[in-house]
Backbone:
């Protein structure tokens, strides 16, 4: 029952009421015959949401919702809707059935990164299906949804990719492909401060001085120009530039070496 404090509660459907100040998305979900779930519920907690997803994600025990902009996630799946916004783990279960692989993984990464749930809690909630187990195996550390997308895409190409690696003298980098190709994924708002821009260039110079290859990808390139970026990364890999030269003195310094 949705019954928030306030005067003159509005009747939404049988057993459900809302005050005049209730969240409009929650009210719409309840009025449509369900509760808020999936990325609509998780976004309220700051979790990554796929680009251009403007549907209202609703979970309805009756298997249908009313409204052209509503999407019913996990119709009829337990637990029966008894609160207006699904618990994060219930919403995550809806999300893995609703989203494609890379966006579903980005949601799970984001939930763990924000400490909304633990990895163990995600395992317990999602590991009972083959899809859930597959997505859990793909989960890793990431500071942004776009970073998760890049990692999933590169691993799908068969590349060895390590996440959130600490390199002495530089600090943490987003991704390392093979042994020395550093891939930094800039968020949409990353360069709004001059300080960030300058620090990035300082870090890039330090990495290059140590022999690393550095590729910096913008938010726009991840979302709208990925094919070109992918071809550039594959060209680097085909030349073997993602590996340390075997006759180079000091090979591998600054970070752990891996095959691939």
Residues:
């Amino acid at each position: 029952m949705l019954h928030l404090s306030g005067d003159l509660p509005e009747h939404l459907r049988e057993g459900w009421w809302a005050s005049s100040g209730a969240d409009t998305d929650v009210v719409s979900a309840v009025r449509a015959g369900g509760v808020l779930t999936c990325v609509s519920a998780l976004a309220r907690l700051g979790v990554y949401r796929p680009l251009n997803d403007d549907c209202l994600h609703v979970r309805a025990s009756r298997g249908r919702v009313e409204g052209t902009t509503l999407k019913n996630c996990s119709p009829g799946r337990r637990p029966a809707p008894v609160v207006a916004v699904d618990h994060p783990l219930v919403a995550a279960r809806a999300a893995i059935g609703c989203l494609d692989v890379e966006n579903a993984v980005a949601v799970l990464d984001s939930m763990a990164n924000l400490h909304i749930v633990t990895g163990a809690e995600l395992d317990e909630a999602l590991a009972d299906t083959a899809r859930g187990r597959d997505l859990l195996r793909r989960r890793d550390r990431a500071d942004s949804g776009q970073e998760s997308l890049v990692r999933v895409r590169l691993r799908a190409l068969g590349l060895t990719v390590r996440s959130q690696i600490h390199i002495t003298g530089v600090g943490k980098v987003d991704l390392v492909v093979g042994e020395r190709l550093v891939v930094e994924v800039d968020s949409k708002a990353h360069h709004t401060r001059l300080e960030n821009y300058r620090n990035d260039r300082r870090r890039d110079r330090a990495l290059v001085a140590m022999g690393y290859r550095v590729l910096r990808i913008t938010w726009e390139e991840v979302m709208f120009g990925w094919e070109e970026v992918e071809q550039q990364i594959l060209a680097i890999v085909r030349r073997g530039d993602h590996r340390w030269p075997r006759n180079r003195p000091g090979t591998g310094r600054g970070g752990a070496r891996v095959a691939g």
Summary: Strands lie at 10-13, 16-18, 35-36, 56-59, 70-72, 161-167, 171-177, 181-185, 213-217. The CA atoms of residues 59 and 197 lie 43 Å apart. The chain is about 40% helix and 15% strand.
